[in-house]
Amino acid sequence: MKIHFREQYCSNGEEILYVTPDHQDTVVRVTLKGERPSIRKRFSIKRFFQHLFLPVGYPDSVSSDYLSYQKWDTLQAFCSTISGTLTTHAILKGVGVGSDAVNPLSATVTWVLKDGTGHLGRILFAWWKGSELDIDSKKWRIRADILNDVAMGIDLFVLPYYPKAATYILCATTTMKAIVGVAGGATRSALTQHHAIRGNLADVASKDSAQETCVNLIASFVGLFLLSYLQNQKILYGLFAFVTLVHIYANIRQ
Fold this sequence. Notes:
Layout: E1 2-9, E2 14-20, E3 28-32, H1 37-42, H2 44-53, H3 66-94, H4 104-129, H5 137-157, H6 166-195, H7 201-229, H8 233-253
Antiparallel strand pairs: 1-2, 2-3
Helix pairs in contact: 3-5, 3-7, 3-8, 4-6, 5-6, 5-8, 6-7
C-alpha cells in the first residue's frame, strides 16, 4: 500500500490517509479515528518542532534515507561551524584587529581584496567544473568539505605566524572557500531533489535550510564559549583537529 497524503486533526485525534492499495490504481480515502486525543496534546511541542524543521507529510513525503542523511548532515554542519568560529578569531587577528600597528584602511583593503578574489574564484570554478557537479554529487561534496577544512586549517595554523603575508594567505583561503560554496551548493541541490519524492522540492530545501541555520546558531554560541573558556592555543589546535576529523567522518557517512 502506497501512502500519498496524510491529514491529521489534533482536536479529535482523527487522521485521514489517501492511499493506493496493492494491485490497484485508484486513490482511496481512509479515515482513522484517534482513541486517545489527550496523548496527541501531550506531544504538541514535539509536533511543533516537527512542523518547524521537517517537510510537510514527513516521513511519507521524503525518501527512505532522509533521516539518516540529516543526522550526519547536522553533525558535520555543527563541526564545521565550530571550526569556522575558531578560524574567524585567527583571521581577525591576522588583519590586525586589536593591534595599534595596523590602521583601519589597510585592514579594509585586505578584507576587500580577500572577498574580491573569492568572488572571482566562484566565477572561474563554476565555469570550469559547473557541468560536472551533477556527476557523483557525494564525491564532490566530500572534496568540497575537505578543501574547506584545509582552508580553515591554513587560516588557523599559518596566518597568525605570517601577519605580513596576511593579504596573500587570506586571498588564497577565501578562493578555496568560494570553490567550496559553489560545489557544496550545487551538490546540495542534487541531494535535495533526491529526497523530495512528492514534488515538494521547495519544502524540503527550505526545511533543510531551517535545520542548518538552527545548528549553525547553536554551534556559534558553543564556539564563542570555547574561545572564551579555552585560552591555551595548543588546546584550541587540538579541538580544531578533533572537530575536523569528525566533520570529515560525518561527510563520508552521509
